[in-house]
Amino acid sequence: MTVEQISALAGGALSLILAYLPFVSTWYDRITPQQKVTVMGLLIVLSSLAVWAYGCRADAEFIACLQRTTPEFVSVLWAALTANVGVYVIAVRQFKR
């Protein structure tokens, strides 16, 4: 799997976890909409950073790999964001009204 695919899976999973995992969803449902946006945004950025760094795990020159693949981070972040929104629209929003 590519880092973009892994990131998309993580973004979609975040949407489902925050909506349906019992203890997490109870907490997430009680916070304000502004806090929800902040929490989701931070989680997406952090998961994208982790997946992007994971892509350089086998490279002997880890820092050089991160510098070389910095433009790739945008596509990793975009994959997580679009999957997160897509899963939310299809599997969460219509059931949370």
Envelope shape = elongated
DSSP helix count?
5
| Distance from first to last alpha carbon | 35 Å
**What percentage of residues falls in helices of 4 or more residues?**
over 70%
Largest sheet: none
User: Structural class of the helix and strand makeup?
Assistant: mainly alpha
Could you report the average pLDDT, rounded to the nearest whole number?
93
Rg (CA only): 15 Å
Tally of DSSP β-strands: 0
Share of β-strand residues: under 5%
| Helix and strand element order | HHHHH
Unreliable residue runs: none
Layout: helices, strands, pairs:
Blueprint: H1 3-20, H2 22-30, H3 33-54, H4 62-68, H5 70-92
Helix pairs in contact: 1-2, 1-3, 1-5, 3-5
Question: How would you describe this protein?
Answer:
The model has no long low-confidence stretch (mean pLDDT 93). The radius of gyration is 15 Å and the shape is elongated. It has five helices and no strands. It is an all-alpha fold and 97 residues long.
Q: Gist?
A:
The chain is mainly alpha-helical and 97 residues long.
Name the features.
mainly alpha, elongated, 97 residues
